[in-house]
């Protein structure tokens, strides 16, 4: 019983390739498990989802309309002068928030307005305590 160390010139080449057969086997087993269990997971309660409807916008006199221009200026209602700051908008919204019933706030944002301007407006309105905030969109052209 002997062991030969060193070489007679009959050295085996070192195998430097990765054996991917076990990886493929594991992936196939996982795939089969996911295929079998996905119908069980996706067995959801059947509900009637609401249908899409496109209604014309008819502003209510009680609702507050805030317009955000593409430059980020905020306009209150139909006033042509912009609101001075976020604090001024907060003060105006705080007065509206205590009314019963509380008015809805509809934000009309310019298509080219920065998201930051719209986000600040929404945050200010929510901090003032307004529960219902929505967006006014222009419907697509008919035809």
TrEMBL record:
Transmembrane segments: 26-44
Molecular functions (GO terms): transmembrane transporter activity
Membrane topology: Single-pass membrane protein; Single-pass type II membrane protein
Superkingdom of origin: Bacteria
Subcellular location(s) of the protein: Cell membrane
UniProt xrefs under InterPro entries: ExbD
GO biological process: protein transport
Keyword field: Cell membrane, Membrane, Protein transport, Transmembrane, Transmembrane helix, Transport
GO annotations of cellular component type: plasma membrane
Family indicated by similarity: Belongs to the ExbD/TolR family.
Official protein name in the record: Biopolymer transporter ExbD
Organism: Undibacterium fentianense
């Amino acid at each position: 019983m002997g062991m030969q160390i060193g070489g007679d010139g009959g050295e085996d080449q070192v195998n430097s390739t990765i054996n991917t057969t076990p990886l493929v086997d594991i992936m196939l087993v996982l795939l089969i498990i996911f295929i079998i269990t996905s119908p069980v997971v996706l067995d959801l309660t059947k509900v009637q989802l609401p249908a899409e409807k496109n209604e014309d916008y008819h502003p209510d006199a009680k609702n507050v309309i805030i317009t955000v221009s593409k430059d980020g200026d905020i306009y209150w209602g139909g006033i042509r002068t912009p609101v001075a700051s976020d604090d001024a908008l907060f003060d105006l919204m705080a007065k509206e928030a205590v009314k019963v019933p509380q008015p809805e706030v509809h934000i009309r944002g310019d298509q080219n307005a920065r998201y930051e301007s719209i986000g600040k407006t929404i945050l200010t309105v929510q901090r003032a305590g307004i529960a219902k905030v929505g967006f006014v969109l222009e419907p697509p052209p008919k035809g």
